[in-house]
Amino acid sequence: MEQPPKSPDSQRPADSDGGLPHCYRHPDRETGIRCTRCEKPICTDCMVDASVGFHCPDCVRSGSGTGHAPGASQPRNVVGGVVHAGDPRLVTKILVGLNLAVFAVVSLAPAGERILREFYLIGGVAAPPYVLLDGVATGEWYRLFTAMFLHEEIWHIAFNMLGLWWLGGPLEAALGRARFLALYLLSGLAGSALTYAVAAPNQPSLGASGAIFGLLGATAVLMKRMNYDMRPVIALLVINLIFTFGGSNIAWEAHIGGLVAGALLALALVHAPREKRALVQYGAFGLVFAAVLVTVLVRTASLTL
């Protein structure tokens, strides 16, 4: 993300060697921004918007950066979200725990197979004389959502939860809890919608892969905006796409749908102009949700006419 214009409080002398100071949390990054509370140098990844200047994460967590006068604005992150002083990975941990809990129930409960059949994504199951008995096309739209939390194989949930942990924590810290959760869920729904629209209606699908690919797309956009080295995330994306199209029993539609949705939402989050930030961000989430809704309606119409 580009450095914003320096406020008068953030302009400090450079290091004694004539260069810019380095972020106290990322010694390899030069920065011209300092915390207005403790005056430690902070990079754009660490700075937290405050009513005056910027604060460092330490001051925000300790509360010294949040002691504004009544009516003053709360510290916000680089996309406008409120910075919480608690665990920066709270939502990520909850999502990982929820996925693991559902996997345990499905794996250990006697009714595990029935739970999978009732909640995985399937367009419709036909029976003679070709009448749809169950599936999204028959009104079971909840399957678009519940399939995001179902896994059948241990390797499947292991890879997805590793991806969620590695990508989710930094993104949650950068975007804030609400925006991160909305991006995760909407990316997963976009993946489900594309799977429903393209795959055979009687082909079951399940897993958090669509949402994980959404986080991957958002990470790439955020790193590009902050002028970070893109080679690691590009390599990760290429490897995942090779597995997506080269493996068997992989719903590539969920991966691509989630990836595109996550990238588009992240573009709106990090590039929204400050004066119209809320309008642009909420509008982008609304448009992606509308696209998901239209996709599901069109596919349902084609299966039920």
Oligomer: single chain
How far apart lie the N and C ends? Answer: 48 Å
Total number of domains:
2
Q: What proportion of the residues form beta strands (DSSP E)?
A: under 5%
Low-confidence stretches: 1-18, 65-73
Radius of gyration, in Å, reads 22 Å
The structure class reads: mainly alpha
| Neighbour order of strands in the largest sheet | 1-2
Q: What is the molecular shape? A: elongated
CATH level 4 superfamily of the largest domain: Rhomboid-like
CATH architecture of the largest domain: Up-down Bundle
The H-and-E topology, N to C, reads as EEHHHEEHHHHHHH
Helix content: 40-55%
CATH fold node name of the largest domain: Rhomboid-like fold
- By CATH reckoning, the class of the largest domain would read Mainly Alpha
Secondary structure: number of strands: 4
Provide the residue-averaged pLDDT: 84
Major β-sheet, in short?
2 strands, antiparallel
Domain Peptidase S54 rhomboid: 139-270
Membrane topology: Multi-pass membrane protein
Keywords: Hydrolase, Membrane, Protease, Transmembrane, Transmembrane helix
GO biological process, one term: proteolysis
Could you write a compact summary of the structure shown?
By secondary structure, the chain is mainly α. 53% of the residues lie in helices and 4% in strands. It is a multi-pass membrane protein.
